[in-house]
Specification:
GO cellular component, one term: membrane
Strand content: under 5%
Number of strands: 0
Membrane topology: Multi-pass membrane protein
Family: Belongs to the G-protein coupled receptor T2R family.
CATH class of the largest domain: Mainly Alpha
CATH superfamily of the largest domain: Rhodopsin 7-helix transmembrane proteins
Number of domains: 2
Number of helices: 9
Order of helices and strands: HHHHHHHHH
Structural class: mainly alpha
Distance between the termini: 63 Å
Keywords: G-protein coupled receptor, Membrane, Receptor, Sensory transduction, Taste, Transducer, Transmembrane, Transmembrane helix
Subcellular location: Membrane
Helix content: over 70%
Shape: globular
Length: 323
């Protein structure tokens, strides 16, 4: 019975590793595409907007988080018995925490910039923030990175101090290899995510409210030549993005709470959350004209290469038959 249970656990872990690898490959392809397009435009001297800067850094943070998360799974599952100290896993986990916090801050910054750019509020404070943030986006990105590093450093310091003081490294407890060392992540994650989530919710609600009232006024006007499809498209984008970020943030919060009370990780939920940034980045490519155009070119080149290779193989087969 014990061998059967252990075999089922090994199969389950193998399934988790395969899913994590699939999410990693998909994430590397999608995020690197976004980064490559925007970096190429910057390198060639083409105009790059503040939104492009944020989206590029957001792609880097998401790609880094997926790499660290997948590396953690593989080290924990395959090399755990060869580790003499939990410091390795703590370091990888801290890197993942850093990119997760950066993702939160950059997502919040992107929402704020879009709100200031699209909304039609005309208060003095709103106009001041629009001009100030638009011209200092790079500085805000740097501040987001520093805040993420600070939160990550707090988590790493507390965790290492806990291990050094009296923590034990238990290699036998399933899903609890660090023996509740990550229990402190509940406080650090709550502190690190609260403010970016708050700013994100405020900016998203303001943007949605502005778009809703604007489209309502336009529908009530007698001008039938007005096209509302653009506004509806933006409303759909804001709604989808809000749903994605809500699931992503609270999904991580559920994982942290579960570990705090049961000292066990919800690996299936973490891996499911790894697919959300891939889906959102794919949707971002679809909704952005520049990224959509470049993706169409890439797919067209791939299809041409495949069909050209098939034609070459067909001609070679015909020549062999003729001989």
């Amino acid at each position: 019975m014990a061998d059967s249970t252990e075999g089922d656990t090994n199969i389950q872990n193998l399934g988790f590793l395969v899913l994590a690898l699939i999410a990693l490959i998909a994430g590397l392809l999608i995020h690197s595409f976004i980064i490559g397009v925007n970096v190429t435009d910057w390198w060639k001297g083409r105009p790059v907007t503040p939104v492009d800067h944020i989206v590029t850094c957001l792609g880097v943070s998401r790609m880094g988080a997926q790499c660290a998360d997948t590396l953690y799974y593989y080290v924990d599952a395959l090399f755990l018995s060869h580790l003499d100290s939990p410091v390795t896993l703590l370091t990888i986990g801290s890197i993942y925490e850093f990119f997760t916090y950066a993702n939160g801050w950059l997502t919040s910054l992107l929402s704020i910039v879009l709100c200031l750019k699209i909304s039609n509020f005309h208060s003095r404070l709103f106009l001041y923030l629009r001009g100030m943030i638009a011209h200092r986006t790079v500085y805000f990105i740097g501040a987001a990175v520093l805040l993420s590093a600070f939160n990550c450093l707090i988590f790493l310091t507390i965790s290492i101090a806990k291990v050094t003081k009296g923590g034990t490294y238990n290699k036998t407890i399933q899903n609890s290899s660090l023996n509740c060392t990550y229990s402190t992540s509940l406080y650090t994650y709550t502190i690190g995510v609260f403010f970016p989530l708050l700013f994100y919710c405020i900016s998203s609600v303001l943007l949605f409210t502005s778009l809703y009232h604007h489209t309502t006024k336009m529908k009530m006007s007698s001008n039938l030549s007005i096209n509302l499809e653009t506004y509806y498209s933006v409303i759909k984008f804001v709604s989808f993005t809000f749903m994605f970020n809500t699931l992503y943030f609270f999904g991580h919060f559920v994982c942290v709470i579960y570990y705090y009370f049961y000292c066990a990780g919800l690996n299936w939920l973490y891996i499911s959350l790894d697919f959300l940034p891939v889906l959102h980045s794919s949707y971002l490519i679809y909704k952005t004209a520049k990224l959509r155009s470049q993706m169409s070119k890439v797919l067209q080149n791939v299809m041409d290469f495949i069909f050209q290779r098939k034609d070459t193989e067909t001609r070679e087969n015909i020549e062999v038959v003729a001989l």
